[in-house]
UniProtKB/TrEMBL annotation:
Gene3D superfamilies: 1.10.287.130, Histidine kinase-like ATPase, C-terminal domain, PAS domain. Residues 1-31 form the signal peptide. The chain crosses the membrane at residues 41-64. It catalyses: ATP + protein L-histidine = ADP + protein N-phospho-L-histidine. The keyword Signal applies. This is histidine kinase. Keywords: Kinase, Membrane, Phosphoprotein, Signal, Transferase, Transmembrane, Transmembrane helix, Two-component regulatory system. Residues 597-814 form the Histidine kinase domain. It comes from Methylobacterium aquaticum. The keyword Signal applies. It is an enzyme of class 2 (transferase). GO terms for molecular function: phosphorelay sensor kinase activity.
Length: 823
């Protein structure tokens, strides 16, 4: 048959499928020939149909296979495309992370501009790409010209640059240009935050330098003598007025020759006032340009010495005398008036009062003659209940005393507790101070119903408060809401007038503060049926970030008062204080680390100084004359004192770090006390202090670190001797109290006030208390640390004029066990 003569060269599965179809057709044709009654052409048609079916099936399978392979390929390409898009987005995010523009010029010179063009905006004109390279359109002219020149240099020779320019709107922009990969790159970035602050600080530094030069020139032109002294008291600078007053020719000569304007007694008095912390100018008499004048001298201590200025007040003294005579005449006139008059000077002291004033307040004449302060008089009158009753007397008093700073007379009405009403006129005096006029106007005041007045005052007061206030009646309806409440919760006047129910008010308020729980509590406080009504306090957070402290208080008539206080600032301050506390803790740690490292670095060269000083003192390298031997002794004592301070700092640093370990041994109490006394013997003899030892012979020993016990005794004895006067005694007492050893050091010195005792164990707290004793304030801090490391405790008792008693208690049992328990 024809079907059997088809070509047999078919490839793969397709060839096999076609061959299978042909064989199917041959089999169908053969079956047709053998089957009786069938025509040959029908058999051929059936065979062709079967072959076509098989062929279509194979093609479908091949299609599905290829489709799956291309689907996998498409998935891979989509993933790669997503990665490329992510990289592109990250690049755009990096470029847009801050206001900046990047301009790139390729080899053809065409610029590519990317970034935020908003920094080129000017007024109402928005930024655009075309305005970026037109620097003169959005930068100040000088900066625009400089930037144009820098860009031309960058594109022509590839020279990089970095400069700061300013826009017409006052913003600061950093321009940075450089060549990258054969292309010119310009980066414009708006400075914000710390970068802008750094630029501003540089400008401020330059302005400060110019200001100092201007100030120096100004001081050189003023007529008042101005000078500066070093730490040694020598003159280091003076203006022209000083040189003229001291008759020294010029300022340079005055400094070179040390010309003094003030006499020695005046300079010593100024030094004493400054050392005592005295404030205000010192009035002295001095010869100025050959004439005796009266000067007000003000000297202020600085880090490098002192600065001073002298003001000529000779004419002022003459005018003051004339003014005093006029005031005396006015006082005699005012004393005849029936109106109560009181005059106070600029220091708020009473300088005059007439008989009417004394009769009005019924004050002790001796008290008034003592020239009390205005505030003292107000306090006395308040204690006698003669002033108007005030809920916040301090604020009211501050308001009354504010009249001293007013430019015009102030009129007030005082309603006294005894029913009188006073018209008070506070008139500032031209020369400073205040004059009070008290007029009794009780007869002219018409009293109304107390209840109506009280209700009106309460309503007006609540309505003028800045804090939101609302009152709900016993039926749960809003009876009153001040303006602040309506403004905060945006409640219109028409709603307040209809007295809405608490549910309606909550529905309006929840649009601004959506939290449900606080409003449920408020509703319960207003409408809840409870046996005992109690107040409510909660906090409401508004959508705009405002924090309100809400308080609901029951009123005697059954109503409920609802108040709000804006605590947003307090919450922000609390957060700021928390951050500041953390910063302070970090600073403290850095300080301790710094002290620790610096102390170690100082001790090594100091040890060398002490060693070489000992060699000089022993005259190993040659004989010394008496002056050299005295200097060597001074160096030795100072170096030893400095070494003690450094060792104390290292001990405190070791204690803070937890690395201090005690070397425990059997310590003989008497021997330890004797060793400490030998170390302080020279100071006892030099200060003429008698040492009394009250140590029982059978005191025995205890387990401790002997070196630290001696250090404790030495520090306590040093303090006792330092704060004792010649001829006094210092006692050292020891005793055993059960399982404890008690060691006491008692002196008869000045004693300490309570405020000093409260901080006596703090580090670097040094209080001389009027004695010659000096120190860095580490002795008692180290004593307490060592005592506590031994598992003991330290107590101090003192009072001014009664001396000081320091008591150290140590455990004498199992030292290791007690130390572990104490830790």
């Amino acid at each position: 048959m024809g079907v059997g003569r088809r070509p047999r060269r078919l490839g793969g599965r397709a060839g096999a499928g076609i061959l299978g179809g042909a064989l199917g057709l041959a089999a169908a044709a053969q079956a047709a020939e053998t089957a009786p009654g069938l025509h040959a052409h029908n058999a051929v048609g059936v065979a062709v149909l079967i072959g076509l079916t098989i062929f279509a099936t194979i093609l479908s399978l091949l299609y599905l296979r290829e489709r799956a392979r291309w689907a996998r390929r498409e998935h891979t390409l989509n993933a790669e495309l997503a990665d490329l898009r992510g990289a592109h987005d990250r690049a755009d995010l990096l470029l847009g992370s801050e206001p900046q523009i990047v301009v790139t010029w390729d080899a053809r010179g065409e610029p590519l501009i990317e970034g935020d063009v908003g920094i080129t905006a000017e007024g109402h004109r928005p930024g655009s790409v075309r305005r970026v390279l037109a620097f003169g359109a959005w930068l100040v002219p000088a900066d625009a010209a400089a930037l144009d020149a820098a860009v031309e240099t960058l594109r022509g020779r590839g020279e990089r640059f970095r400069r700061t320019v300013h826009t017409l709107q006052g913003r600061t922009v950093e321009a940075q240009g450089q060549a990258v990969g054969g292309q010119a790159l310009l980066r414009l970035r708006e400075l914000t935050g710390e970068r802008r602050e750094l630029v501003a600080l540089r400008a401020t530094l330059e302005e400060t330098r110019h200001g100092l030069d201007a100030l120096s020139g100004l001081l050189d032109t003023i007529p008042q003598p101005v000078w500066r002294r070093g730490r040694d008291g020598r003159l280091t600078w003076a203006n022209a007025a000083y040189a003229a007053a001291a008759e020294a020719g010029d300022a340079a000569r005055a400094v070179r020759e040390g010309a003094e304007l003030l006499e020695r007694t005046a300079r010593e008095e100024a030094e004493r006032r400054r050392s005592r912390g005295g404030a205000g100018p010192l009035r002295v008499s001095a010869v100025v340009a050959g004439a005796r004048r009266t000067l007000d001298v003000t000297e202020v201590a600085t880090e490098g010495g002192t600065v001073g200025i002298a003001v000529d007040v000779s004419e002022l003294e003459s005018v003051r005398a004339d003014l005093q005579r006029q005031m005396d005449a006015n006082v005699r006139t005012l004393d005849q008036l029936p109106t109560a008059v009181a005059m106070f000077d600029a220091r708020q002291r009473l300088i005059f009062h007439n008989a009417a004033y004394r009769h009005l307040w019924d004050l002790d004449p001796a008290f008034l003659e003592g020239k009390p302060l205005d505030g003292e008089i107000l306090d006395t009158l308040r204690n006698a209940r003669k002033l108007p009753e005030q809920a916040d007397f301090r604020s009211w008093k501050s308001g009354v005393l504010a009249a001293y700073r007013a430019a015009e007379a102030q009129e007030n009405w005082w309603h006294l507790p005894d029913g009188r009403t006073l018209r008070v006129l506070a008139d500032p005096n031209p020369q400073g101070g205040l004059t009070y006029l008290f007029e009794d106007v009780s007869e002219r005041v018409h009293l109304e119903s107390r209840y109506n007045v009280l209700m009106q005052v309460q309503s007006e007061t609540l309505d003028t408060l800045r804090e939101p206030v609302a009152v709900f009646g016993t039926d749960g309806r809003l009876k009153f809401a001040n303006r602040a409440f309506s403004q905060v919760w945006r409640i219109g006047p028409e709603m307040v007038e209809v007295q809405p129910h608490i549910d309606q008010v909550i529905a309006v308020c929840r649009t601004l503060s959506p939290a449900e729980e606080p409003w449920a509590q408020i509703r319960e406080a207003v409408t809840g049926l409870v046996d005992a009504r109690r107040g409510l306090a909660c906090r409401l957070a508004l959508a705009d970030g405002t924090m309100l402290d809400c308080a609901a208080e029951p009123l005697p008539d059954g109503a409920t008062l609802l108040t709000h206080i804006d605590v947003t600032a307090s919450v922000n301050v609390e957060r700021a204080l928390t951050d500041k506390n953390e910063a302070l803790e970090r600073t403290t740690r850095l300080r301790d680390e710094f002290v620790h490292h610096v102390s170690y670095e100082l001790r090594s060269p100091l040890t060398n100084i002490i060693g070489f000083t000992e060699l000089l003192g022993d005259e190993t390298v040659g004989a010394l004359n008496p002056r050299q031997r005295e200097y060597a002794d001074h160096i030795m004592r100072s170096s030893a004192a400095l070494l003690v301070i450094i060792n104390d700092i290292l001990d405190l640093a070791s204690i803070d770090a937890g690395s201090m370990e005690l070397t425990r041994e059997r310590v003989d109490v008497q021997a330890t006390i004797a060793a400490a006394v030998r170390g302080i013997g020279d100071r006892l003899a030099e200060a003429d202090i008698a040492l009394v030892l009250d140590v029982p012979p059978d005191i025995g020993s205890f387990v401790a670190d002997g070196k630290r016990i001696r250090q404790i005794l030495f520090n306590l004895l040093s303090n006792a001797v330092g704060f004792s006067a010649p001829g006094q005694q210092v006692r050292v007492c020891t005793r055993k109290d059960g399982e404890s050893l008690v060691l006491e050091v008692i002196d008869q010195g000045r004693g300490m006030p309570p405020e000093v005792m409260a901080r006596v164990f703090e580090r670097f707290e040094s209080h001389t208390l009027g004695t010659r004793h000096r120190g860095v304030g580490l002795g008692l801090s180290i004593v307490r640390s060592f005592v506590e490391l031994h598992g003991g405790r330290i107590d101090i008792a003192s009072s001014p004029g009664a001396g000081t008693r320091v008591t150290c208690t140590f455990p004498v049992g199992d030292g290791q066990a007690r130390l572990a328990a104490a830790e």
